[in-house]
Specification:
It is a single chain. With about 70 residues, the protein is an alpha+beta fold. About 30% of the residues lie in helices and about 35% in strands. A 4-stranded antiparallel beta sheet has the order 2-3-1-4, with helices on one face. Strand 2 (about 30-35) and strand 3 form a beta hairpin. The longest helix is centred in the N-terminal third of the chain and has 11 residues, at about 15-25. The relative contact order is 0.33. InterPro entries: HMA_dom, HMA_dom_sf. This is Zinc/cadmium/mercury/lead-transporting ATPase. It comes from Oerskovia enterophila.
């Protein structure tokens, strides 16, 4: 499994987490999403590395910004 970690700006609540989860969940190859408004952390897991550009675009589509952190 490949894991990508991101730091998301602007999340404040569970609704924020849900919005990001819904958008990122549509990215090809994503099997698991962990997102926390408290820490601003987004972890995306798939069988192969997921395209960063697509994950970042999905986060932006949800109304937030993110950067790859690990």
């Amino acid at each position: 499994m490949a894991t990508n970690e991101y730091q998301v700006s602007g999340m404040t609540c569970g609704h924020c987490e849900l919005s990001i989860r819904e958008e990122v969940g549509q990215v090809a190859g994503v099997e698991d999403i962990q997102v926390s408004a408290q820490t601003g952390r987004l972890v995306v897991t798939g069988p192969r590395p997921v395209d960063d550009a697509r994950v970042l675009a999905a986060v932006e589509e949800a109304g937030y910004s993110a950067v790859r952190s690990a």
